[in-house]
């Protein structure tokens, strides 16, 4: 057999070498990056303070790759093989050196510089992407970053959030957006996931104490809800049909409260956005003008919020029948039948004894779901750093 | 460092590895990419004697053309590849790499299980930014050691 006739390409090594990183793409990322208007991606890691506040048990230091909607954890995988990046040679090869490869004179086509490729970089590791079983959520980070809003609207006198008389009108949506985006910069998940978390928590921006981002406590959310139902009933607003959020806000205010509302309008809007029908929810960048509520989902949210507000821990558990009664009392008359324990979201409550009930924080819920799969994933993560395993996979 | 941008495209195609002055890509069509970059995997590494004291370290900030030089290492061959029949992929099963004149490795061309994005620091940018230079879908893979050959 002779390889004499076949096409041979001179192979060279270029110095200085260039610096490259190799990133293994998932199918979705490949599609995104090859699309016509591919978005700018971000490599995000939490700020030092956030990294200490929200500890990730699976990784000490980490960087996440974020597309506009999705988040991936980056893992650097070492390989015993070396990956060289090649490109066509520009012909800067010393002709004298060619005889290392080919005897002078006899080499014919080989000496042509346009028949060469050259190694310009060497990588001994690649970056792999993965999504942990629970996915990524902005909520733990937001909970640490946002200030807790916990003023009871039924308190008298000292509720004033700064001098409301001088606060000239609410913040523009642009300023609110900037405040939110600044906060999300430090949160190592995608923009969509940040916005999702923001919405879930009913977070809002308020300027009375200087522009700040807040998350309302369960108690505050419940207070907003109660005022909202009261107002709607008084003004004859049907919450299941489309209503103007502006009308709802007016109905919430008592006559003497125009100047000093019980809570910021932004908070009402955040709550309405959280519980309105998802398909009708405008993007976070837009004001919410119209909304309507779904009886079932809304009831569920109210039940969960009530429980979180009144029985946040096992030691503060309340009687079940007492809870059900109070839950029903929070709802518009026609929705009362919806309030049953089976309607509550999975795992959101616990019963210390058969007659009582208390709230379970979302992180603890996930924990109970995950305990079974956690050791398996930990073992898997370990294995991928093991080159024996890596090589086995390659065969 | 909270956030570093990763640009989906190369900022400066002129300065990039693919330029109008770049010669033809001699690799089989399947291995060719718009930028000309390709991947080659070896078990082990290529040791090149360092003839220059400032090499190795300062590569990221260098402007390429001024002081690069290439050291010949060997030859690549795709013995079963024919330009006349580019759709046939049987040729992928065999690739040779000669190191010097008397050693040869046998390998193959493989489709990567997942495409690989080649990233690098964006050069003409103030903030630290990365960019995707190329997305590569195949690699030339030599998993065996070199064997001696007497006649090239």
What are the salient characteristics of this protein?
heterodimer, A: 395 residues, alpha+beta, 3 domains, five-stranded mixed sheet, three-stranded mixed sheet, 13 helices, 14 strands, 34% helix, 19% strand, elongated, disordered N terminus, B: 152 residues, mainly beta, seven-stranded mixed sheet, 1 helix, 3% helix, Dcc1 (chain A), DNA replication (chain A)
Task: Kindly report the oligomeric state of this protein.
Answer: heterodimer
* Total beta strands of chain B: 7
- Terminal residue distance of chain A: 28 Å
Query: What's the helical proportion of residues of chain B?
Result: under 10%
Count up the helices of chain A: 13
Number of helices of chain B: 1
Any low-confidence stretches of chain B, pLDDT <50, length ≥5? Answer: 14-20, 53-60
Number of domains of chain B: 1
Largest interface: A-B, 75 and 77 residues
Whole-number tally of structural domains of chain A: 3
Annotation, overall tally of beta strands of chain A: 14
Outline type of chain A: elongated
Through-space gap between termini of chain B: 53 Å
Helix content of chain A: 25-40%
From the alpha-carbon coordinates, what is the Rg of chain B to the nearest angstrom? 18 Å
Percentage beta strand of chain A? 15-25%
Spatial sequence of strands, sheet with the most strands of chain A? 1-6-5-4-3
Q: Strand percentage of chain B, roughly?
A: 35-45%
Low-confidence stretches of chain A: 1-5, 107-111, 155-168, 369-383
């Amino acid at each position: 057999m002779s390889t004499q006739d076949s096409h041979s390409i001179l192979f060279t090594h270029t110095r200085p070498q260039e610096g490259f990183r190799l990133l293994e793409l998932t199918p979705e990322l490949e599609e995104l990056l090859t699309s016509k208007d591919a978005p700018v991606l971000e490599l995000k890691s939490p700020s030092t303070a956030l990294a200490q506040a929200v500890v990730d048990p699976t990784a000490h230091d980490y960087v996440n790759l974020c597309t506009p909607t999705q988040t991936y954890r980056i893992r650097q995988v070492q390989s015993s093989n070396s990956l060289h990046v090649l490109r066509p040679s520009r012909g800067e090869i010393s002709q004298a050196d060619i005889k290392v490869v080919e005897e002078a004179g006899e080499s014919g086509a080989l000496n042509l510089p346009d028949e060469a490729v050259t190694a310009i970089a060497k990588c001994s590791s690649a970056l792999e992407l993965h999504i942990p079983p629970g996915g990524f959520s902005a909520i733990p980070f937001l909970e640490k970053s946002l200030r807790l809003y916990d003023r009871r609207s039924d308190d008298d006198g000292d509720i004033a959030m700064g001098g409301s008389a001088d606060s000239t009108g609410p913040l523009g949506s642009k300023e609110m957006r900037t405040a939110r985006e600044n906060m999300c910069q430090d949160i190592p998940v995608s923009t969509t996931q940040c916005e999702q978390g923001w919405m879930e928590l009913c977070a809002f921006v308020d300027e009375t104490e200087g522009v700040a981002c807040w998350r309302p406590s369960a108690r505050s959310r419940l207070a907003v809800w109660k005022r909202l139902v009261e107002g709607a009933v008084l003004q004859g607003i049907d919450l299941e049909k489309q209503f103007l959020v502006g009308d709802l806000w007016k109905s919430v205010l008592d006559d003497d409260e125009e100047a000093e509302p019980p809570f910021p309008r932004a908070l009402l809007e955040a709550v309405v956005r959280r519980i309105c029908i998802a398909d009708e929810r405008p993007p976070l960048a837009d004001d919410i003008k119209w909304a309507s509520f779904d009886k079932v989902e809304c009831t569920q949210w109210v039940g969960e919020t009530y429980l979180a507000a009144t029985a946040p821990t096992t030691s503060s558990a309340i009687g079940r029948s007492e809870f059900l009664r109070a839950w029903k009392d929070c709802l518009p008359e026609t929705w009362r039948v919806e309030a049953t324990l089976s309607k509550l979201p999975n795992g959101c409550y616990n019963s210390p004894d058969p007659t009582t009930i208390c709230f379970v924080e979302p992180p603890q819920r996930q924990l109970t779901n995950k305990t079974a799969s956690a050791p398996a994933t930990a073992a898997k993560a370990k294995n991928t750093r093991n080159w024996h395993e890596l090589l086995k996979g390659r065969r | 460092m909270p956030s570093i941008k990763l640009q989906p495209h190369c900022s400066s195609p002129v300065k990039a590895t693919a330029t109008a002055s770049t010669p033809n890509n001699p690799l089989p069509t399947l291995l060719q990419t718009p930028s000309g970059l390709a991947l080659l995997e070896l078990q082990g590494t290529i040791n090149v004697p360092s003839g220059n004291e400032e090499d190795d370290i300062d590569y990221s900030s260098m402007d390429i053309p001024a002081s690069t030089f290439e050291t010949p290492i060997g030859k690549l061959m795709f013995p079963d590849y024919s330009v006349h029949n580019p759709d046939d992929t049987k040729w992928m099963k065999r690739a040779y790499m000669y190191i010097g004149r008397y050693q040869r490795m046998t390998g193959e061309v493989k489709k990567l299980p997942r495409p690989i994005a080649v990233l690098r620091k964006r050069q003409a940018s103030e903030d630290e930014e990365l960019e995707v230079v190329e997305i590569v879908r195949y690699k030339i893979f030599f998993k065996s050691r070199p064997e001696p050959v007497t006649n090239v």
